[in-house]
Amino acid sequence: MTTIFSKIIDKSIPADILYEDELALAFKDINPQAPIHFLVIPKKAIATINDIEEADKTLVGHLYWVAAKLAAEMGFAQDGYRAVMNCNEHGGQTVYHIHLHVLAGKALGWPPYQDKLKPKLV
Ligand code: AMP
User: Which residues form a coiled coil (predicted)?
Assistant: First the structure.
């Protein structure tokens, strides 16, 4: 399944890209939920956490490596941040191409609980 993130990967729609390599892309979230909010995605289209295969384990670890690298370079690693993936409807997932949300720039509340479902984005 292609999603809006496939179009960001192939550059057919613009994004504010922070990092790119052969496996992953990081770009600013269009609707930030914290002073710093970007997404780290694999170039391989994997719909949800449930679809991660054994062969993808290194790739998923790579997403966290990119998050930590950017946290260090952008200067918020020591203050701290959150790096999370939402899964399916109850997890609040709207784009069905896995992505790590990286949120930073303020003390974040926990749990990040919103008692409502969000529509799927295509
Ligand atoms: P989720 O709800 O966990 O699936 O997160 C999807 C995220 O993608 C949301 O935070 C959206 O704001 C973000 N998003 C959707 N479209 C774009 C886009 N074109 N560029 C950047 N971020 C986007």
Answer: none
* pLDDT 10s digits, 68-90: 999 999 999 999 999 999 999 99
CA of 60 to the centre of ligand 1 (A): 18
Is 99 considered catalytic here? Answer: yes
CA of 121 to the centre of ligand 1 (A): 8
Domains and CATH numbers, the chain: 4-117 (3.30.428.10)
What string of H, E and C letters represents the secondary structure of the chain? Answer: CCCHHHHHHCCCCCCCEEEECCCEEEEECCCCCCCEEEEEEECCCCCCHHHCCHHHHHHHHHHHHHHHHHHHHHCCCCCCEEEECCCHHHHCCCCCCCCEEEEECCCCCCCCCCCCCCCCCC
At residue 122, the pLDDT reads: 77
Q: Is the pLDDT of residue 60 over 80?
A: yes
Where does ligand 1 bind, in terms of residues with CB under 6 Å? 4, 15, 27, 29-31, 86, 92-95, 121
pLDDT at 121 (0 to 100): 85
